[in-house]
Design brief:
Structural class of chain A: alpha/beta
Strand order of the largest sheet of chain A: 2-1-3-4-5
Helix content of chain A: 40-55%
Low-confidence stretches of chain B: none
Number of strands of chain A: 11
Strand content of chain A: 15-25%
Strand order of the largest sheet of chain B: 2-1-5-4-3
Strand content of chain B: 15-25%
Order of helices and strands of chain A: EHEHEHEHEHEEEEHHHEE
Mean pLDDT of chain B: 83
Radius of gyration of chain B: 53 Å
Shape of chain B: rod-shaped
Largest interface: A-B, 23 and 25 residues
Mean pLDDT of chain A: 84
Number of helices of chain B: 9
Largest sheet of chain A: 5 strands, parallel
Oligomer: heterodimer
Distance between the termini of chain A: 29 Å
Low-confidence stretches of chain A: none
Helix content of chain B: 40-55%
Order of helices and strands of chain B: HHEEEEEHHHHHEHEEHEE
Largest sheet of chain B: 5 strands, antiparallel
Distance between the termini of chain B: 60 Å
Chain lengths: 226, 441
């Protein structure tokens, strides 16, 4: 899951980035509203975490403006202001969830998963795809009832594919989801992870669409010989 | 407590009724005296008239007891008895059979007597060897008196009742603006702070309404300020707390160098929380009424040196302090703790906004009764529009790392201790001038 964190307090932001990364999410951090706008233009994000007290612009105004210009990804507001008016204003401006500082990193991750699940129209926090099931919060992958051990990158890759069922994802989009911007990337790193995923979940799980990118394929279980 | 209208009506009504009653009693007693006098005069006149008649009549038989004249014959008014008797007491003539008992005619002049158990008033006149006595019944006098009293008191009573009614209505009318005010107040919700609008209002109540509205306004502003302050304080305290908690959780999720880094950052957060708390407490104490006077007295130069010592420890050598050649040794006329804290906050602020290789200059000069500190930094200065925010709580210039309370504390100290504070921003840095009172030599 590719997360954009917009938080001006450097100390808090570094904690969120480290904590969400440790829980298997791919996180990008910006400190200002203008940086957030720029970042949303150049990369695809699944969800956004927004602090209201930004130095250059009020977070609510930013959110309203982003929603008006067609931003559809779920947004979770993170703030230290706890009055009911603040919360109502936040939700009215287009936020999908509201978390009060100080918060629990596990709760933040769980809420982000829930937001994504809601967007995907699922009612249980478990993604099923043929013989494959994936739990975004516990990051457990099961294939035909058997647990499969995936690395963090492989989990991110699988999640990106599962969240975009039926759609073709370009190499760039997949890289954003799996690595974010900060990681130094070897040119064939993505191919290595795709290869590993195919080896563990079956060759068909990642379909290559020539010239365009990759797509989620059928999960047919233990048919690993192909 | 009783309503104002009822109270006013009762007080005024009682006073009214009392005065009217006294006047009426006075008038009626006067009237009664006049009437008694008139009735007595009638007895006298009747007796004289009978005496005149007796002289014209033929001599009465000496033993003609029981001789009766009718009242008409003697020409005495109805209800009045008349008796003519000799000096010896023999009754020569009487006007009627009633009363049976003869009238007492021993004494001359007016006389109250009981005849057949009823009180009479009589008048006896001596004329020659005759005694003429006229009398009338007290009961009749009283009845007459009563009917006059009644005739006089009914209009008085009606007038009094009418007055009381008008009083009640008039007071109600007069108090109507108060009632309107009461109704307007009762219609408001308890926490409403909107100004009251009542028109028209008499000039006596207008100041009350104005004061009330000013009070509402002041309370509204205070509540708004407090609300903002608690909101700000919550934000300022929760932010470092969030940093601490987040990094501690990260430390639990990771190990090795990542864990050490997270723990170090959690500690950084704790330091920030500590600083913010200290500053908030100091601000609350300065703004409160607690005394800071510990008997320690510092001269201006000592204040400057102590403030430099307290200022951000690592950066102390960046502060250039020029000790003037001629400086007053008089102690600063305010608690030393506060004068040092104010100057230290200015120095901290200057250090924070000066690039790490730049210096902060502190100069001081004394006049007869004041000391003037000038702190000059080599930062970028501050926009004209932002000068007014400088002493606002939790306001920070851009990405400043301060807790946003330093200058607010200086401002609070300035207000408490009769100091002055002036900012002068130029492109080559901000100059802050702080003056404090000195004890007269």
């Amino acid at each position: 899951m590719h997360v954009l964190v917009c938080e001006d307090d450097e100390l808090i932001a570094s904690g969120i980035v480290a904590g969400l990364t440790a829980q298997g999410l791919t996180v990008e951090h910006v400190a200002t509203a203008s940086a957030a706008r720029a970042m949303l233009k150049v990369a695809e994000f699944d969800v956004m975490v927004l602090d209201l007290g930004l130095p250059d612009e009020d977070g609510l105004k930013l959110l309203q403006q982003l929603r008006n210009s067609g931003l559809e990804i779920p947004v979770l507001i993170l703030t230290a202001r706890d009055s009911v008016t603040d919360r109502v204003d936040g939700l009215q401006a287009g936020a999908d969830d509201y978390l009060l500082k100080p918060f629990d990193l596990r709760e933040l991750a769980a809420r982000l998963h829930t937001l994504l699940r809601r967007v995907a129209g699922r009612s249980v926090n478990l993604i099923e795809h043929g013989a494959l099931t994936y739990d975004p919060s516990s990051r457990e992958t099961m294939l035909g009832g058997q647990p499969v051990d995936l690395s963090r990158r492989e989990q991110s890759l699988l999640q990106a594919l599962l969240h975009n069922r039926g759609r073709v994802l370009s190499t760039e989009q997949l890289k954003d989801s799996v690595y974010g911007f900060n990681d130094e990337l070897e040119s064939n790193a993505l191919n290595v992870h795709i290869h590993h995923l195919r080896r563990k979940l079956g060759n068909g799980i990642v379909e290559t669409v020539r010239g365009l990118g990759y797509r989620l394929g059928p999960a047919d279980g233990g048919d690993q010989s192909k | 407590m009783m309503s104002l209208r009822l109270r006013l009506s009762l007080t005024l009504g009682a006073a009214f009724a009392l005065i009217w009653a006294l006047a009426a009693a006075w008038m009626l007693s006067d009237l009664r005296n006049q009437m008694m006098f008139s009735l007595d005069q009638r007895l006298v006149a009747s007796a004289r008239m009978v005496a005149g008649l007796m002289e014209q009549l033929p001599a009465l038989p000496t033993k003609g007891e029981g001789t009766h004249f009718s009242a008409e014959q003697l020409n005495v008014p109805g209800g009045m008895a008349c008796q003519v008797s000799s000096l010896r007491g023999e009754i020569l003539a009487r006007s009627h059979t009633d009363p049976q008992q003869k009238l007492e005619a021993e004494k001359m002049g007016f006389h109250d007597q009981m005849i057949d158990g009823a009180p009479w008033r009589s008048f006896t006149l001596a004329r020659g060897d005759l005694r003429i006595t006229t009398a009338d019944r007290q009961i009749e006098r009283e009845a007459l008196n009563m009917s006059i009293l009644l005739a006089a008191s009914v209009p008085v009573g009606v007038a009094l009742l009418g007055c009381l009614c008008l009083l009640w209505l008039g007071i109600g009318q007069g108090l109507a603006p108060l009632n309107r005010m009461r109704d307007a107040l009762m219609r408001r919700s308890a926490d409403s702070l909107e100004p009251l609008l009542i028109q028209p209002l008499p000039s006596e109540l207008q100041p009350l309404l104005d004061t009330q509205n000013q009070l509402f306004q002041r309370i509204g502003r205070t509540i708004e300020r407090e609300r903002r302050l608690t909101g700000d304080a919550a934000h300022e305290l929760r932010s470092p707390l969030t940093a601490i908690k987040t990094h501690l959780q990260v430390a639990r999720m990771t190990d090795g160098a990542a864990r050490d880094q997270s723990l170090a950052r959690a500690e950084e957060g704790a330091d920030r929380l500590h600083r913010t708390l200290e500053q908030l407490l100091l601000l609350a104490r300065v703004e409160g009424s607690l005394s800071f006077d510990d008997g320690v007295q510092c001269s201006a130069e000592q204040v400057a040196k102590l403030a430099i010592q307290d200022a951000a420890s690592g950066d102390r050598q960046r502060i250039k302090f020029q000790v003037p050649t001629k400086v007053s040794a008089a102690p600063v006329q305010m608690p030393a703790v506060l004068s040092i804290a104010a100057l230290r906050n200015l120095l901290d602020n200057a250090l924070r906004h000066t690039p790490s290789d730049g210096a902060v200059e502190l100069s001081l000069e004394t006049t007869d009764n004041r000391v003037r500190f000038v702190v000059r930094d080599h930062g970028p200065g501050i926009a004209e529009a932002d000068l007014q925010h400088l002493t606002q709580r939790f306001w920070r210039n851009g990405q400043s790392t301060g807790c946003g309370l330093g200058l607010a504390i200086v401002q609070a100290i300035v207000q408490r201790c009769a100091c002055t504070l002036r900012f002068d921003s130029r492109p080559d840095g901000l100059r802050v001038e702080l003056t404090m009172p000195l004890q007269p030599a």
